[in-house]
Each structure stands twice: as C-alpha cells, then as structure tokens.
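Revision sheet: structure tokens.
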Amino acid sequence: MPKAQNTDDPDDGIQIDLISGERMEQMATMEKIRMILDGVHDGNIVILEEGLTPDEESRLIETTMAEISPDEFNGIEIETYPKSEANDSSLLGRIMGQEQSTAKLTVIGPANQIETLHKDETLISALVSRRN
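Predicted:
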C-alpha cells in the first residue's frame, strides 16, 4: 500500500488507512488480507468501506492467528457493522430483482491499541491508544 508522505515524527499520532470498496474489489482475497495485516503490523488502523466477505474474514483471522508472536504481534481487533439495507430487504424487493446491500464498514487495528467501547447497528465507538 502506498504510504502517505508524513514529515512529522510517526510517534505523534496514529495512521488511519481508509480503503475504498473500489480498490478492494480489484484484489484477490490473499492480497486484501496481506494489505490489511501489513498495515496493522505497522500499527495502523485500517477502515474498509465495504468490509470483507465471511470467507475473507475467516481467512484474515486464520492468517492473523498464524502470525501472532508474544514479543512482536498481538493480533487484531476487528469490528464490522452493516450499512442500512432500507427497502431492499423486503420480499417484494427481492422478487422484483432489487439487489440487497451486503456492504458494511469494517474497522481493523492492532489488538494492543484498539479497544471497542460500544457497538450497535449504527455506531462503533473505539478507544485507540498511542503506539507502544
């Protein structure tokens, strides 16, 4: 992932990578997982506009578990919530061929830096600590 030019000391804050759905749809599953984990390994918070499929999320967790080491990488914290599906989820909408929205926002960060304070249908509230 291209890095933003930052002339300040990297310990002054936390980098947040906001990744568009358009960029993600052009990548294979393992490319997505590697991009996410590389960002998290660097101590960044990664926000995906459209989230991952259940299979991709499972593979992300599986790959993360294989990379955990006590002294270097503590794992990830991941929170997801779906965007509003409004009228598309109705039976009539499905019969008429309207697509159901499965898009969702996903927040991923280092387990030792991000703590979920609250999560519901419309809000994820998290506390993010400075890098160790």
